[in-house]
Specification:
- The chain has six helices and 17 strands.
- By secondary structure, it is an alpha+beta fold.
- The strands form four sheets. A six-stranded mixed β-sheet has the order 5-4-3-2-1-17. It has a six-stranded mixed β-sheet with strand order 8-9-10-12-15-16, with helices on one face. It has a three-stranded antiparallel β-sheet with strand order 11-14-13, with no helix packed on it.
- β8 and β9 form a beta hairpin.
- α3 runs parallel beside α5.
- The longest helix has 17 residues.
- The termini are far apart.
Length: 300
């Protein structure tokens, strides 16, 4: 039986005006829905610039409550219900004074709030000072049963860890969606070291799709955002994409332009692939993986 979900990946640039960013995102979501998308995903922290380039406590003013009934969640739910789409959106969550998370919410096509995922892996690298802003997630790896399919959500840095994608697949995810903010830092002393980084970013996620025989949607922002100093910042490389259960790139967005990329995903293909290849589940040697719960294993 054919089960096709039309997935809309919204990649856009962001400026300093939060309301303008939100309005732009809503316009792109409406565009995606008008073109047939029934699952739409926005990028990581879609309402603001990627403020984690710098350490500045003033940015905590951007955070907001993220739970059922919160203004941001109600707005997203109303939009999803109006358009009849599943909507995934990345927000800066204020859990309590002094406790914040990098969070994605999922609302179903009738506007119901299905829940949220809090980013588990938090980077702390030059230009990505996220540990200053975000506590690690404590909700685990979650799969949301939506009208148009079972969706597992990760956020950006999570994408490098195969264990996270595997756990979502084991919980029944048909589509893994990863809102992202990633690009090339423009400081002269680091530019040369990041050659090929984009290829690694794409390859590791294609690998998740293959290893778990599911679809994977990566949604990135695009455009240049300045850093703290002159001649510094990040050129976000866009190129949002959907990979199928064979790891093939079904469609990919531009490296320079804002875009609403609409890609059909035949979810029936997941069952076909899993019947043909036994590695996602049947042949796993779960009795031999105890070491995965260790941070590191010294050689014997």
């Amino acid at each position: 039986m054919e089960r096709v979900a039309n997935i809309g990946l919204i990649q856009m640039s962001c400026g300093d005006d939060v309301e303008a960013n939100y309005g732009k995102a809503v316009d792109r979501v409406r565009e995606a829905a008008s073109r047939g998308a029934n699952i739409v995903c926005l990028q990581e922290l879609f309402k603001s610039r990627y403020f984690c380039q710098v350490v500045d406590s003033r940015h905590f003013e951007l955070a907001e409550p993220v739970d059922e009934g919160a203004p941001a969640v109600r707005q997203l739910g109303d939009l999803a219900a109006e358009l009849g789409i599943v909507l995934i959106a990345g927000l800066f969550e204020k859990r309590a004074v002094g406790l914040y998370h990098n969070t994605a919410v999922v609302v179903d096509a009738d506007g119901r709030y299905l829940g949220k995922y809090r980013k588990m892996h938090i980077p702390d690298d030059p230009g990505y000072y996220e540990k200053f802003y975000f506590a690690p997630g404590d909700l685990g790896y979650r799969v949301f049963k939506t009208r148009f399919g079972a969706i597992g959500v990760l956020i950006c840095w999570d994408q490098w860890f195969p264990e996270a994608a595997r756990l979502l697949a084991l919980k029944g995810a048909e589509i893994i969606v990863i809102p992202t903010a990633i690009g090339n830092r423009q400081a002269e002393h680091v530019r040369a070291t990041e050659v090929g980084y984009h290829e690694s970013w794409q390859l590791v996620q294609q690998g998740h799709a293959v290893a778990n025989a599911c679809y994977l949607a990566a949604v990135n922002r695009v455009g240049f955002e300045p850093g703290a100093k002159e001649n510094e910042g990040i050129e976000f490389w866009g190129q949002s994409f959907l990979a199928d259960p064979d790891g093939r790139i079904v469609a990919q967005a531009s490296a320079e332009r804002e875009e609403a990329l609409i890609v059909p995903a035949d979810l029936a293909k997941i069952e076909e692939v899993r019947k043909s290849f036994s590695f996602p589940f049947r042949d796993r040697r779960v009795d031999s993986y105890q070491g995965l719960t260790s941070l590191y294993l010294d050689s014997e």
